[in-house]
Every structure is written in structure tokens, then in C-alpha cells.
Design brief:
The protein is built from 17 helices and 18 strands. With 475 residues, it is an alpha/beta fold. It folds into two domains: 3-88, Outer Surface Protein A, domain 3 (Alpha-Beta Complex); 99-372, TIM Barrel (Alpha-Beta Barrel). Helix 12 (332-343) crosses helix 17. The structure holds iron/sulfur cluster (2 copies).
């Protein structure tokens, strides 16, 4: 006898409307009164047969009861008690066939800053390795990207480091080569670059404009905050040096909006002021990330994380206010969450690392992502001989969220998917472990995101489409 049960869910109440978030499907919709009544009635019940379920639909005629039952099955509010099929939007179930979408080129292993929290500096570098990528390796990396991209029409090449502008002279030649290669194969290459801003010049900024390169600047906020960690090796601060350069970049940015990436080390209560400051300079978006370090001096303490959540909650309110007025507030963390909810893809992995994304070191070796570059354990082959398929298959099999027992009962699992491998490596001792140090935080942030999502969906739903388009998703 087939039995049914109500799918794992969360209800969200905003502006007098009730929404349902189906956890396993990462799907959200507004509930009509009948669905609401049924959930209230069935929510605490054990598995039911179809007959029992129909009988509990009360006063409706038989036809309406049947239609309601079928509708709930279709929306997967009601699911078979055993053996549920994965949702149609599940991605990454067969990762071996995933084409390469993004390649991160470590143009150099060196950096002219010596930021106090830098994961790169903290890990240390092995000696005797090549520190700067030469043009020959960079071209072969482009060949590798295009060859491994399968049927994708667009791929992404990211210039990264160390500080990639220390090897700026390689970039124009790589860009020209990649454009020619892409044109010959009917593809398009999108370029991105992350810089600390210290080496920006008018010539470099012009080049970014001409070649439509998306730029992210690592900048931690106003002078006092920025200079507390982002310093040169001799200890001198960097804010005053980068400010006019960054202003010039932002003034010239007509092709692609420029984003700032903030590493949070202390005093998260300053986050709204930092956002104001950086948006005031002209950044389109600002993303915040607590520093990932095992160093107790820089790690945010639990009380700091609470303050960060309060700050994010306030910013979510500001974001909603802006959306209501048709404005845009470039708070990347919330935008990323809203876009992920709207896209609704159920992922088996927390990010693209080791799937459609790899990083290449100056010598041509391939790593899971930029944060693992140089660490032998996470080397997945090289651009000359290709990916180490055996090692990669092992990683993909082990890293899937289905192996993270702690996450299986968590309502936020389709939002978090266990979290960043690098953070897990640093904080939990293995990249394969879930990031259990921040579960409560993630769940509370997930609730803030869901409420914001429902609020926008209830009042100005087109705004969600616009956000998705700003992230390159097409309707
Ligand atoms: S790491 Fe924590 S918050 Fe994330 S899915 Fe696992 S249990 Fe949930
Ligand atoms: S492992 Fe972490 S740092 Fe690397 S791509 Fe994934 S989320 Fe980003």
C-alpha cells in the first residue's frame, strides 16, 4: 500500500501572506488557503494512505479533493513516504560529465602586500616552484579550458594571484589568444580579475575597459579598517595608495561594474558603515567574508558572528527598502542568496571547485580552486596531461553532501551544502567535513534570506528576475 507524507518544509509569514519553502527541492511558493489548512492538519501526522489523505480533506466534493491531492503531489508538498525521486532541478548527480566552465589562472604566486590574515601567506609556500606564469603556460591553459568546456557556449577565465597585476604584461597576450581561440571554436570567453588595487594605472584601467574585464578589488573598508591588516611587507599601510587608483578605476568602469570584496577580521558592527563607504566610492557591489584562518587573533569569535548576523539583518531591511523604491543596494551576500533561491537548483556540492572550476598554478598544475593552489593534496592533474580522473572521481564521490551525515537532517542543507571545502580544511581539519562551526549562523542567515525573498516575491516579484539577470542568468 502506497503511503504519503508532507515533505520537509519551513513556513514563512510575511505581509499577511504565507509561503512554503520545500527543503529538499529548494522551492518556495505562496500557499493558498487550502494548502495552508492541509499542512496545519497533516503536518504532525504519520504517513497516510491516499484514502486517509482524501478523507481528511473534509467538506470538498470528491472531484475537488482528488484535484487538490494531485496538485499537492505535483508540487511535491506531498511525497511518497519512501523512495522519493530527486527533484528535476538537481544538478551534479553525474559530475564526471560536467564541462569545464571556469579556469582561474594564478599568474603569479607572489604578492606585493603582506596582509596579516592572508591564507596564502599562512600556508607557506614550497620553495623551488615557478612563481610567475609564462605566456606559453597561460596559452596552454586557455587551450585546456576551451578543450574541456564541452558544449558550453561561454567560459570564464579569471586572472588571479598572488597579485595578478605583478604579471600584467602577460594579460593582454592571454586575452588576445583566448578571444581568437574562442572565436575559432564558436565560444565566448568572459574575463575577470581580482586585484589588491596597488598596481592599477591609467593604462591598465583603459585595458580593462577595452577588453571588458570584470574587476573585483580586495578592499576592507575605510582607511582605519583597511589598514589594520592590508599592509606592505615593511608594515606600511595601503589604503592611501590605492584610493586614487580605485577611484579612477570606478570612474572609468563603463563596461562592467566593479565589485569589492571585504575580508572581515573584527568589529562586524562596522559592516553597514563599510558598505556605505565602498558603495559611496562607486563600487556596484560589496561582498563580506569572515576571514578563514586557524589563527585565533584574526578569527571572529562567536559574539562577533552574532553581531555580524545583526548587521546582515539590518542590511537586508535596507535592501528591501531599496527594492521597494526601485533602487539597488549592492549587498552581494544577500543578492547571492536571493539568486540561489530564485534559481532553485539543488546542488550536491557547495561550489564548483573540482567540478566546472579549477585553478592553475604558474607551472600549469590544476587544483580544486584558487584557495588550494600549491597544496599537493589538492592537485588534480595538469594542463599538459589533463585531469587525474581517478583522483578527481574519488574527490567527487567523497565530497557530495550525501556523505555528510550531519547535514542530512538540516533544513538549510540545500542552501549551504556543507560549506566551503577550504574553510572546512582550516576549521574542521578536513575539506570533506561539513562546516559545523557555523551551522546555527547559516541557518539564521538562511531564515533572513527566505524572509527577504518572500517579501520581494509578495510585492515586486520582477525584482528577483532582475537580480538573476544581473548575475548572468537568463529567464
Ligand atoms: S554544514 Fe551545518 S548548516 Fe550546513 S548543511 Fe551541514 S548541518 Fe546544515
Ligand atoms: S572551496 Fe571554498 S574557496 Fe574554493 S571555490 Fe569552493 S567555496 Fe570558493
Amino acid at each position: 500500500m502506497h503511503k504519503f507524507r508532507v515533505a520537509e518544509h519551513k513556513t514563512i509569514h510575511v505581509d499577511g501572506k504565507d509561503f512554503l519553502f520545500l527543503v529538499a527541492d529548494k522551492a518556495i511558493f505562496e500557499m493558498d488557503p487550502s494548502t495552508k489548512g492541509i499542512l496545519a492538519d497533516w503536518g504532525s501526522k504519520r504517513d497516510m494512505t491516499r484514502k486517509e489523505a482524501l478523507a481528511s480533506l473534509g467538506a470538498l466534493c470528491a472531484e475537488d479533493r482528488d484535484a487538490l491531492f494531485q496538485g499537492l503531489l505535483q508540487r511535491r508538498v506531498l511525497i511518497p513516504a519512501r523512495g522519493t525521486a530527486p527533484h528535476a532541478k538537481t544538478v551534479g548527480a553525474c559530475p564526471v560529465s560536467i564541462p569545464l566552465k571556469t579556469l582561474i589562472l594564478h599568474l603569479t604566486d607572489t604578492c606585493n602586500l603582506s596582509c596579516r590574515y592572508c591564507y596564502y601567506a599562512e600556508r607557506g609556500r614550497s620553495t623551488g616552484r615557478k612563481e610567475r606564469m609564462d605566456l606559453n603556460v597561460a596559452r596552454q591553459a586557455v587551450d585546456f579550458l576551451v578543450a574541456q568546456s564541452g558544449g558550453l557556449e561561454e567560459v570564464v577565465l579569471v586572472f588571479f594571484g598572488g597579485e595578478p597585476l605583478l604579471n600584467f604584461k602577460a594579460i593582454p597576450a592571454v586575452v588576445d589568444y583566448a578571444c581568437a581561440k574562442a572565436a575559432a571554436t564558436g565560444k565566448k570567453v568572459n574575463f575577470a580579475l581580482t586585484t589588491n588595487g596597488t598596481l592599477l594605472t591609467e593604462e591598465i584601467v583603459d585595458f580593462f575597459q577595452q577588453k571588458n574585464i570584470g574587476v573585483t578589488v580586495s578592499m576592507d573598508g575605510f582607511q582605519e579598517v583597511h589598514d589594520s591588516c592590508r599592509r606592505f611587507p615593511d608594515g606600511s599601510p595601503s589604503y592611501a595608495l590605492i584610493l586614487p587608483k580605485v577611484k579612477h578605476l570606478l570612474q572609468q568602469a563603463r563596461q562592467r561594474p566593479v565589485a569589492a570584496r571585504v575580508t572581515l577580521v573584527k568589529d562586524p558592527g562596522q559592516v553597514p558603515l563599510i558598505l556605505d563607504h565602498l558603495l559611496g566610492l562607486g563600487f556596484m557591489e560589496v561582498g563580506f567574508a569572515p576571514v578563514t584562518t586557524g589563527h585565533p587573533d584574526y578569527q571572529l569569535r562567536p559574539a562577533d558572528m552574532d553581531r555580524l548576523l545583526e548587521a546582515f539583518q539590518d542590511l537586508a531591511q535596507d535592501f528591501l527598502q531599496a527594492a521597494q523604491e526601485g533602487r539597488f543596494l549592492g549587498f552581494s551576500n544577500l543578492i547571492d542568496l536571493l539568486v540561489a533561491l530564485h534559481q532553485g537548483e539543488v546542488l550536491n556540492y557547495p561550489c564548483g571547485a573540482g567540478l566546472g572550476l579549477f585553478a592553475v598554478d604558474p607551472g600549469g598544475r590544476l587544483f580544486l580552486c584558487q584557495r588550494f593552489t600549491g597544496d599537493e593534496q589538492f592537485c588534480m592533474g595538469d594542463i599538459f596531461r589533463g585531469l587525474n580522473q581517478e583522483k578527481l572521481a574519488e574527490f567527487r564521490a567523497e565530497a557530495a553532501i550525501s556523505n555528510k551525515t550531519d547535514c542530512q537532517q538540516c533544513w538549510a542543507r540545500t542552501l549551504c551544502t556543507g560549506g566551503c571545502y577550504h574553510e572546512a580544511c582550516v576549521r574542521e581539519g578536513s575539506h570533506l567535513k561539513p562546516n559545523l562551526h557555523y551551522c546555527d549562523w547559516i541557518r539564521r542567515w538562511g531564515e533572513i534570506g527566505l524572509e527577504a525573498y518572500c517579501q520581494i516575491a509578495a510585492t515586486y516579484p520582477d525584482y528577483l528576475e532582475r537580480l538573476c539577470r544581473s548575475r548572468g542568468y537568463r529567464p
